[in-house]
Queue: 4 jobs
Job 1
Amino acid sequence: MRDRRSVALAPSPVVWPPDDTEESVLGTSLHQTTITNLRLGINEAAAIATPDGSPLLWQAGGQTMIRNFRRPDDSDYTTLPDIFVYRRSWDDARGSLSLAVDGPPVLIIEVLSDATAESNLDMERGKGYSYARAGVREYLILDPMYAELPTGGQSWRLVDGVYRPWPPDARGRWASAELPLLFGLEGARAVVETSDGRRLLREGEVERTLLGAERTLRDRERQLELQERREQAHLDEIARLRRRLEELERER
């Protein structure tokens, strides 16, 4: 007779990579700040690049469920990428997306955390395999703690269905071939730059920058007002001198 205890204690098969969950992708405050700054920068760059009244040229989402990725054993795999970008706008009120309906993102960025680092970095059986198989054209991993990746990041591009290394430039920026953007780290802070070298604002910089711009505008307005007053005073003096000259001519 089969021992029921052995059945009850038998370990469950390990599914690799495990599906992402809200708990597994949460990470630290730095992890979430990095995601926020990447998404903010990417979407602000899209708003700048898109003509008024036109749909966004691209749109980034973060930690939203994307279904229908596949594992090496061909089982269905659900992920919540830290950052994913489609080269079109999409309804960000949706609770999930799917490859079957939406197709693959052109870019996925994962920010390393203790819970997801192993599957993020596993290019043979982990997310790298699944993202390549789905047709995600660029895959970038950032490590703002520099715990697993001393350079702060590692990346790949899809070439003939296989991920090949996507090296950073001399400044440590990864220049996307799919979007006119560059990504990197300044210390532990994520950087998003446009292809013409403009760095997009990050969390904590927007209001400060607006206030600075307002102060600059007010200073400029005061300078213009003073200049106008000086010019008017100069014109008034010229007019006074002309009147005096006319009076002297009449007195002759």
Job 2
Amino acid sequence: MTADTLAISGPGLSAEINPLGAELWTLRDGDGRDLLWTGDAAFWSGRAPILFPIVGTVAGDTYRVGDTAYTLPRHGFARRRRFAPVEARADRVTLRLTSDDETRAVYPFAFQLDLAFAASGARLDIAAELTNTGGGPLPASFGYHPAFLWPLPYGAARAEHRILFEVAETASAHRPDAQGLIVPASRPAQLDGRTLTLDDALFADGALVLTELKSRSLTYGAATGPHLRITAPDTPHLGIWSMRTAPFVCIEPWQGYADPAGFEGEIWDKPGIVRVEPGARRSWRMGIELLD
């Protein structure tokens, strides 16, 4: 544990959360084995960033609110901001980001974003709650971006790992172009009903983006031995990403995704944007459970 992270644990799982970005920093089983990517910059320095107030890329890194243009980098600014701890106990922690002059310069809305992490048994539950603290409607997307070790530390080879969806999904997915924008035409995704077999070639052209996700849970790992179950009841989209030969795979429940190539609308027209009325709240939950 670093001096800055907040540690929580249950009988079968432990985690550390970094207040910088409210990022899940480590996730370990009851024997101390890592399940989460360690952020080796030789591949990718991220671990499990939080995506807010957008998911993916806006065209030219610019979006419009009415006639005014604003600049936002890919996946927004929350992952680069320090969240303030508002609760810290042995099995749970809550961190908060509130709008300020810096956020309003690029996102002219008042908000409060809470990230709550709770460990119970061999399960970690994460809940993001967005509150509109302003006087007008608030447009937002939100996403999780955890990178899990591939392979998991239980002896199975990378080639044996798969994602098994709750229900059968479409056999196609969208891909980003060189600018990170979503290509309108879908492409084969190597999905066979409920099963997505993982291999390096799958990510040769970048992430897979499932824009019409039916499942609200999936499992990741080999067909035998310990594996992970990921639940995301509130997010209608999913990104799956890795880098060729990288020892991780990102399984990313999203509300929203990148602009389609050629998109010229304002932020209210961006795919997956939700409208949060003044004083209202919107929540997105994610669970990660280790199964035998």
Job 3
Amino acid sequence: MATFRRGLDAEDRICTKLEGFGCRIQRDQRLDHKHKLDFVITNYIDNPNFYSLGVQITTKLDMFDKQEEFLRANQSSRVTTKALYLELSDKVDLDDGGALGVLAAILEFQFNRTYANLKIAAARIYDDLTYQFYDLMARVKQLRERVEEKQWKLETASTQFSIREKAPAGSGAPGLAIVGTPGAPVAVTVTSHRENISGMIDSYVRQGGHGIIQGEGETRYFFHISHVSDDGLREQLNAIPYSTNPARLYVAVEFWNAGFTKPGARYPEAHNVRARS
């Protein structure tokens, strides 16, 4: 059974099938590399009119970087009148109805008045050859948020606190970080760089009381609520709904770089965190 596969062979196969149905197709490297289009349909079955619908077909489902690249390449492009991002289940068989499903989705986007004023669309063809259109921009945003949340959890997984003592107010000392299980703490020496650094709180988990600050350049810092010396900022963080999911804040702050306070820490810690005026 010849199923849809990745690469040029797959593109050749689907183009051959569509041409067999009476479609006229244009292909070249410029369309592929610059505009992320595998081919452009210029005429349809027994229809003498000229059309210009670019298509990218893929079996890589929910690849937001690939989808985002397609959006960027075609949103302002005048190379084609319309552009369709088409996902196929890896089990779709082009020789057993799959090519007809591809043609049906293409014709739907071209001739259904629902999509008359829509330049870019996306659809997925399932194993049973049914298909469904979806909002590509909304899907990219949703998938990006999922990836960022997963990455955030990985970033903070190695920087959890079980016990932490805060330095006495006004002492000027960064404090002692005690990391480990209760009853058997391990003291870790803190080397503090007390010059103020500017950054932005990227995300914060209310349940754990910890978050990530995007510092200057590419450096990211871990902080705990006990490191916040600004009463107003602490109140703002404590007002976030209690949840294990990270909340996105983007609050401008300044802080000290306390360095890496535990073996294997992914990020240095931010201490004396204050809202930046």
Job 4
Amino acid sequence: MSKIKVCGLKRLEDIEAVNACKPDCVGFVFANTKRFVSDDLAYELKSKLSKDIPAAGVFVNEPIEHIQALVNRGIIDIVQLHGAEDEEYVDHLRRGLPVGIQIWKAIKVEVDLSAFGIDNPKTAEEISNELSLAEERSRYAAAIMQLSSQIKKRMVENIHADCYLFDSKVKGIIGGSGQSFDLASLPTDEEIGKIYFLAGGVGFNNIERIIRQRNPYGVDISTALETDGFKDREKIERMVDIVRRVSAE
């Protein structure tokens, strides 16, 4: 059964919402984005979070000592890295963490295929649905193969992580873009070789297809669960229900 992570919590109302419907994990964002939370706020939120819901901390090239301090204070239970952290960084980080604390690493997947010779791209999935001519389909297939090769290279570079998180890469945006990428670009489960989450543009319009097509270990969702920039309790509850229902089929 695919797990569900609700990311980007920053209000006590958000904590009340997840405590009610019990997703498998939540996320606090310590990177410089619109969902940023301070250490003190994260501490307050975690103190109200149900003890059976682990919290991940989302970081981008963060000083190692800060991450270790957050873990040691009990503010986060999982480390989620979204920057240029290399193997040396992760090894250093892990040595200062308690045994059993997982380190997840984001693998960025392009949503704009113009770099691969596709003209006037929207999202990769929209392109796939709209192409009709054999030549265009051939070009698209070649682009997907090239992108898949790049993803495999990034996986090798981050083999030290306990879990991968495949997230959309949008120029100039760090996470939370709401843009999806084409699942066809992902390697097979056997090639991935470890547990992984799918993120980036996961929403009500595609969640059932994502689970049925890939059956990932988990899905990481943020933007789709918001109304006017804030987490929406009804949307969180509805998404948790959908993920668990479809996963159980």
